[in-house]
From TrEMBL, chain A:
Similarity comment: family membership: Belongs to the acyl-CoA dehydrogenase family.
Keywords linked to the UniProt accession: FAD, Flavoprotein, Oxidoreductase
Cross-referenced PANTHER family: ACYL-COA DEHYDROGENASE, ACYL-COA DEHYDROGENASE FADE34
GO MF, one annotated term: oxidoreductase activity, acting on the CH-CH group of donors
UniProt domain Acyl-CoA oxidase/dehydrogenase middle: residue ranges: 114-199
Cofactor: FAD
Any Gene Ontology CC annotation: plasma membrane
Domain Acyl-CoA dehydrogenase/oxidase N-terminal: 30-110
Keyword check for Ribonucleoprotein: no
Protein's recorded name: Acyl-CoA dehydrogenase
InterPro entries recorded: Acyl-CoA_Oxase/DH_mid-dom (IPR006091), Acyl-CoA_Oxase/DH_mid-dom_sf (IPR046373), AcylCo_DH-like_C (IPR036250), AcylCo_DH/oxidase_C (IPR009075), AcylCoA_DH/ox_N (IPR013786), AcylCoA_DH/ox_N_sf (IPR037069), AcylCoA_DH/oxidase_NM_dom_sf (IPR009100), Mycobact_Acyl-CoA_DH (IPR052161)
Keyword Lipid biosynthesis: no
High-level lineage: Bacteria, Bacillati, Actinomycetota, Actinomycetes, Kitasatosporales
Length: 397, 382
């Protein structure tokens, strides 16, 4: 047994990386690959897979030292689905070969990931999904179906995919989990233009897509359980970021208030102050959650954060449109574009207002998350379920 | 622009306080909770408030002296425990959870903190602090319970040490041994038993925290601070009171949610537990979300009070502006989701509703605290 990796060792390895690959003279991808190979990508991951088997809390030493040295980062927002959802799922359920093949290019950002979960008929009731995966004589899976709300599908190299492999079982039990090659000729990505005018999401049509069995994650029929890992990590990544005071959408509204005295009214003042307090309290709750995680006491408060930010973003952006008055009647641009990232702060108040409507739908609707809080946190009895023991093929649709 | 004006992308000048509970705090909580379960259960509290003598001296002695809660904020060399605001906040969470009628907030927090702010090294102030810390006597700051720290206290008048004036709505004055009376020439300590002091009990909305009108007519007092040190001391006492009241409000909200969840899991209508209906589940889940936020705000205020800077002012104002509403909302939902039984005198829900609503006015309403915030973070009114 070697000694566990401590703060001193992490700091030493980080400085060694900076010495062997000076950021000023190393190209970005080269630096990121070296960082991954040094185990400094995500220190809590296993050695050889970008980590050091070290406590997660030591990551901030690496991040701080590298930021101070001006080292490039891997653009975590652009590859958020890969980092936040695909990677933890592959780490937990992947074979050694899958881990070796996928984690390094994922972390470095050479390969972008997307998530093929939601379907037109299976959103909140995700387990009702109908995309089929049928094994052919050669052992390969052949996938047919349609997915929707797929961020980054137009730039993604790989996708995590859940599909139905046994329609004779009740809906949760006949699902399997795959890694889908977005370059397969059977994959067609179409922009899905949304309320803002842009197409941040896509529809993905899967027609005879062939997936070798070596790209299945977890046992056949166990895909729902595997997907829980992905979804849990999705909610953590939506609610877990640290923000400074006025760091979120409230900052934009507060700056407008300070800079434009002619727009102020008493009614808006009261509403702004109420929302300012709520935003500050949400920030403090995020801090408390962070402190809990650092102290090794993870709690269910992440769901609270996701719900709070969804509501706040909607209310603050709505207030901002009103505050702007005549300008609130205008919109920057309805031309369709396909952005790689959602840019809340770079666009105008109208865009923020419209886009934030999605915050209470994406990553679990507010209503479904409230049910989860009520049942799993408060221990309230579940709603009667009439689909539990019925084969998927016999459910009414 | 004030020095505290929030700049986007910048964090606070001081590091974020610890918002969790330490092991010692959990031990203290367990001791206080066990005592209150034993001596201040709901039927007992209801019977006692109806008897007209809400305070149970044995409960107060056990809490204040045996557990040592009364002296948490007082340094050891003055006879206290030398603990922090965070421990006192935990005591208040438990007192909120049981709506126990004890003068903890008024005597052990507000009056004590006012005296501590005078920074006296000996004499009457130190002696009184020792008595309060030991739980032998209690004191009340003679200002209306609704007075926010931001207000200039409306002082009584004093002529050569003889006090004249009427102060309405003073919390816990009826049971206090000593009144701390702000006057135009400073802060006086006045024995409630002294000649010229009348304490007239009022019929209060909150049955568990009595209010009284204090009438001073030629009352004798001891001048314990001149006007220049009395004003900031009173302000400090009220600030700490408002900041720690948030923890009492958190405790109220927690009890209300816990009891509502317990009740709706058991109560059946339409052949299922009413707690399985989504319309009710969402309301309880929403309360849980608010309580998560209220806890962060209350812990933050308690953590920031150790420093006497603008960060403490803001943290207290934020906690009060938020937690007041959460406690009232939780208590109102508690009554509603209990159905008919929630409207009865025998069920304790009404005690919590009355305490929560009274607390929303105590030490400044949420609206007053939002005005403070507007000033502190430069979001001026039109």
């Amino acid at each position: 047994m070697t000694a566990p990796v401590d703060a001193g060792e992490v700091r030493r390895l980080t400085r060694e990386l900076l010495a062997s690959h000076p950021p000023a003279t190393t190209d970005r991808t080269g630096f990121l690959k070296a960082r991954f190979d040094a185990g400094l990508a995500w220190v809590h991951y296993p050695a050889g897979l970008g980590g050091l088997d070290a406590p997660r809390t030591l990551q901030q030493i690496v991040d701080t030292e590298l930021a101070d040295a001006g080292a490039p980062d891997n653009d975590p927002r652009r590859i958020g689905i890969g980092l936040g959802m695909a990677a933890p799922t592959i780490l937990r359920y992947g074979t050694d070969e899958q881990k070796r093949r996928f984690l390094r290019p994922l972390w470095v950002g050479e390969e972008v990931w997307c998530q093929l979960f939601s379907e037109p008929g299976a959103g909140s009731d995700l387990a009702a999904l109908g995309t089929r995966a049928v094994r052919d004589a050669g052992g390969e899976w052949v996938v047919d179906g349609q997915k929707v709300w797929t961020s980054s599908a137009h730039v993604a190299r790989w996708a995590i995919l859940i599909a139905r492999t046994d329609p004779d079982l009740p809906k949760h039990r006949g699902i399997s989990y795959f890694i889908c090659d977005m370059a397969d000729p059977g994959v067609e990505v179409r922009p899905l233009r949304q309320i803002t005018g842009e197409a941040e999401f896509n529809e993905v049509f899967l027609t005879g897509v062939r997936i070798p069995d070596s790209r299945r994650l977890g046992p056949v029929g166990d895909g729902w359980k595997v997907a829980q890992t992905t979804l849990m990590n999705e909610r953590v990544s939506i609610g877990g970021a640290r923000i400074p005071r006025e760091g979120g959408m409230i900052g934009t509204a507060a700056r407008t208030w300070r800079g434009r005295p002619e727009l102020r009214t008493h009614d808006l003042h009261q509403r702004l102050l109420t929302l300012w307090v709520e935003a500050e309290v949400a920030r403090l709750s995020g801090e408390r959650l962070r402190q809990q995680l650092m102290a090794g006491q993870p709690g269910p408060e992440g769901s609270a954060m996701k719900l709070a930010f969804a509501r706040l973003n909607q209310q603050i952006s709505g207030l901002e449109v009103e505050l702007l008055g005549d300008e609130g009647l205008l919109y920057s641009d309805w031309t369709m574009s396909r952005p790689e990232l959602v840019d809340f702060t770079g666009r105008d108040a109208g865009y923020r207002y419209l886009r934030s409507k999605g915050n209470s739908i994406e990553g679990g609707t507010t209503e479904v998350l409230l049910n989860i809080v009520a049942e799993r946190v408060l221990g309230l009895p579940s709603e009667p379920r009439n689909d539990k023991d019925i084969a998927w093929k016999d459910l009414s649709r | 622009m004030t020095e505290l004006t929030a700049q986007p992308g910048q964090d606070e000048p001081a590091p974020m306080p610890d918002l969790l509970y330490s092991e010692a705090e959990e031990d203290l909580r367990a001791a206080v909770r066990a005592l209150l379960a034993d001596r201040a259960d709901a039927p007992g509290v209801i019977a006692r408030v109806e008897s007209g003598t809400p305070y149970d001296p044995r409960l107060w002695k056990a809490l204040a002296a045996d557990i040592g809660a009364a002296g948490l904020l007082v340094p050891e060399k003055l006879g206290g425990q030398g603990a922090t605001y965070r421990e006192a906040a935990v005591v208040l969470e438990e007192l909120g959870r049981s709506v126990a009628p004890v003068p903890y907030l008024t005597s052990s927090v507000v009056a004590t903190e006012t005296l501590l702010a005078l920074a006296a090294r000996d004499g009457a102030v130190v002696e009184l602090l020792g008595e309060l810390a030991a739980g032998r006597r209690t004191a009340a700051l003679a200002v209306p319970f609704s007075a926010p720290a931001a207000d200039e206290a409306q002082p009584a008048s004093a002529v050569t040490g003889r006090l004249e004036g009427t102060i309405t709505g003073v919390a816990d004055a009826a049971t206090a041994d000593v009144l701390l009376v702000p006057t135009t020439d400073g802060l006086y300590a006045v024995e409630t038993a002294a000649d010229g002091v009348t304490v007239e009990p009022l019929v209060a909305l909150d049955l568990t925290r009595p209010l009284a009108t204090v009438v001073l007519h030629g009352a004798a007092g001891v001048l314990i601070a001149d006007a220049s040190s009395a004003v900031p001391a009173v302000r400090r006492g009220l600030l700490v009171g408002a900041g720690l009241l948030a923890s009492e409000q958190l405790g109220i909200a927690e009890w209300c949610l816990t009891e509502t969840v317990r009740y709706t899991r058991e109560r059946r209508q339409f052949n299922r537990p009413v707690g399985s209906f989504q319309a009710l589940k969402h309301r309880m889940a929403q309360l849980w979300l608010e309580i998560v936020s209220a806890r962060a705000a209350a812990r933050h205020a308690a953590g920031r009070l150790a420093a006497d800077g603008p960060e403490a002012l803001l943290a207290v104002a934020v906690a009060q502006a938020y937690c007041s509403g959460v406690a009232v909302h939780a208590a109102e939902e508690c009554v509603q989701l209990h159905g008919g039984i929630g409207m009865t005198w025998e069920h304790p829900a009404h005690l919590y509703l009355k305490r929560a609503k009274a607390d929303s006015i105590a030490y400044g309403t949420a609206g007053r605290h939002r005005e403070v915030i507007a000033e502190l973070v430069d979001l001026p009114a039109p």
